[in-house]
């Protein structure tokens, strides 16, 4: 009798153990599906997701450009690319669609064309500093009138490509941009009220720069000779500013230059530029 009871109890325990193991296996499968999800969905880093949400919260997004920015996986959000390996956010493409045809390059036309297209406005929150691996940032054709180019962008030292053109920024190019030592592409065109009286000489530190577009701004004074230090430069557009004086002879040292635009300024003195010819 006693033996029977023991056997029965043992088998109940065994059954429960089996059930428990089965439950655990089901649980494991469930965890894998829910937590790891589709293996093609890269999970984003929580701190970067929070930074992006903070950045979004400081913006006015009247056209729902960031409407996908709600789900857990920020790497799937519109405009964002993450690394497959490290999961860090690498690219941020948030270009707006203000029409920037050549005839609209004055404030009246721009404010008129603001009525069509879609764009972001508001504040560019410094929470973006969290995205330390970011190498591509495109903010072109949005509406940041009456705001300055954020200085903190100069601390995103992995940036290779920075496009802040046609955003309505005013003020100066932050001297902090001189720290962007990997930068190959910089576009600040069409911000109209961007002045500096000078371009900060620190831009001469951008030793990797290949493309520099500063057209349609309000830069005054002499073209800084430090631009002659950008030895990798292939494209330089300084047209439609208020530069005056001589074109610095140092520009003649830009031996990789393929395109140079200087029109729409007032130059004096000797305009003839001796272009360094690597072949001779
Ligand atoms: C990352 O994953 C995407 C989608 O699976 C793929 O197209 C891309 O080539 C991958 N990139 C790298 C660097 O592995
Ligand atoms: C930024 O986006 C605009 C619009 O798509 C594009 O024309 C431009 O080439 C982009 N800039 C860079 C540096 O990729
Ligand atoms: C530019 O190069 C000259 C030499 O060609 C050097 O004396 C000067 O310090 C450099 N300036 C910057 C800002 O790197
Ligand atoms: C151009 O570069 C050469 C060689 O680096 C240097 O000797 C010369 O001073 C530079 N010229 C100008 C105008 O900066």
The total of helices stands at 3
- Return Rg in Å: 28 Å
Fraction in helix: 10-25%
Mean pLDDT: 82
Bound molecule kinds, no repeats: 2-acetamido-2-deoxy-beta-D-glucopyranose
Briefly note the structural class of the backbone: alpha/beta
Return the string of H and E elements: HHEEEHEEEEEEEEEEE
- Shape descriptor reads elongated
Strand line-up in the sheet with most strands? 2-3-5-6-8-10-12-14
Strand content: 5-15%
Topology, number of strands = 14
Q: End-to-end span in angstroms?
A: 110 Å
**Could you describe the largest sheet, including whether it forms a barrel?**
8 strands, mixed
Which consecutive residue ranges, at least 5 long each, have pLDDT under 50?
29-37
Q: Key terms for this structure?
A:
single chain, 280 residues, alpha/beta, eight-stranded mixed β-sheet, two-stranded antiparallel ribbon, 3 helices, 19% helix, elongated, binds 2-acetamido-2-deoxy-beta-D-glucopyranose
Describe this structure in words.
The chain has about 280 residues and is of the alpha/beta class. The chain is about 20% helix and about 15% strand. The protein is built from three helices and 14 strands. The chain has helices spanning about 1-35, 45-55, 105-115; strands spanning about 60, 80, 90-95, 120, 135-140, 160-165, 170, 185, 195, 210-215, 220, 235, 240-245, 260. The strands form four sheets. It has an eight-stranded mixed beta sheet with strand order 2-3-5-6-8-10-12-14, with no helix packed on it. The chain has a two-stranded antiparallel sheet with strand order 1-4. A two-stranded parallel sheet has the order 7-9. A hairpin with a 6-residue loop joins strand 2 and strand 3 (about 90-95). The chain is elongated and about 110 Å long. Mean pLDDT is about 80; it is low at about 30-35. It binds 2-acetamido-2-deoxy-beta-D-glucopyranose (NAG) (4 copies).
């Amino acid at each position: 009798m006693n033996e029977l009871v023991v056997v029965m109890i043992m088998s109940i325990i065994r059954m429960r153990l089996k059930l428990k193991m089965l439950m655990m296996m089901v649980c494991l499968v469930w965890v894998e599906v829910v937590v790891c999800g589709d293996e093609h969905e890269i999970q984003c880093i929580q701190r970067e997701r929070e930074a992006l949400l903070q950045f979004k919260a400081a913006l006015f997004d009247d056209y729902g450009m960031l409407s996908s920015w709600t789900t857990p996986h920020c790497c799937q959000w519109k405009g964002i690319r993450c690394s497959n390996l490290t999961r860090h956010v690498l690219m941020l493409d948030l270009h707006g669609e203000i029409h920037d045809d050549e005839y609209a390059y004055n404030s009246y036309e721009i404010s008129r064309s603001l009525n069509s297209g879609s764009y972001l406005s508001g504040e560019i929150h410094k929470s973006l500093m969290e995205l330390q691996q970011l190498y591509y940032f495109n903010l072109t054709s949005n509406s940041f009138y009456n705001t300055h180019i954020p200085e903190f962008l100069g601390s995103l030292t992995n940036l290779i490509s920075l496009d802040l053109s046609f955003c309505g920024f005013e003020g100066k190019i932050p001297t902090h941009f001189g720290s962007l030592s990997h930068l190959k592409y910089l576009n600040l065109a069409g911000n109209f009220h961007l002045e500096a009286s000078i371009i900060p000489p620190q831009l001469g530190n951008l030793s990797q720069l290949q493309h520099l577009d500063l057209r349609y701004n309000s830069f005054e004074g002499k073209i800084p000779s430090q631009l002659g230090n950008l030895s990798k430069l292939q494209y330089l557009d300084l047209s439609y500013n208020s530069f005056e004086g001589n074109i610095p002879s140092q520009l003649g040292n830009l031996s990789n230059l393929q395109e140079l635009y200087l029109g729409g300024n007032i130059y004096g003195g000797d305009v003839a530029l001796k272009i360094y010819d690597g072949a001779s």
